[in-house]
Design goal:
Blueprint: E1 4-8, H1 18-25, E2 30-34, H2 45-51, E3 57-61, H3 62-68, E4 78-80, H4 82-92, E5 95-98
Parallel strand pairs: 1-2, 1-5, 2-3, 3-4
Length: about 100
Amino acid sequence: MRSKLFITLKSPHEFGGLDLLREAAKGAQSALLLFEDAVIFAANAKKGKELLTAVQDVYVIKDDWEARGLPLAVPEFKIVDYPEAVELIMERYEQTITL
């Protein structure tokens, strides 16, 4: 099965795709990349841990996270800068899917 990188911009309050994420990621090497308001997941331990039930890795865009001044409540999340995000999208994963 192909490796999949999911991308979301939606905050935990707007994101309704957890079940879809779980189903689409099933059986694949998968990760989620959080941009814009989606980085709020990193400050919410409960919601953040829910994401880790669907995918193996969660990446948080450093600039968006720092701009919001949020704590990192989910230590398993990986903070990445834009060049690292480009590498994830273009090199590391075979498919990218925006939710």
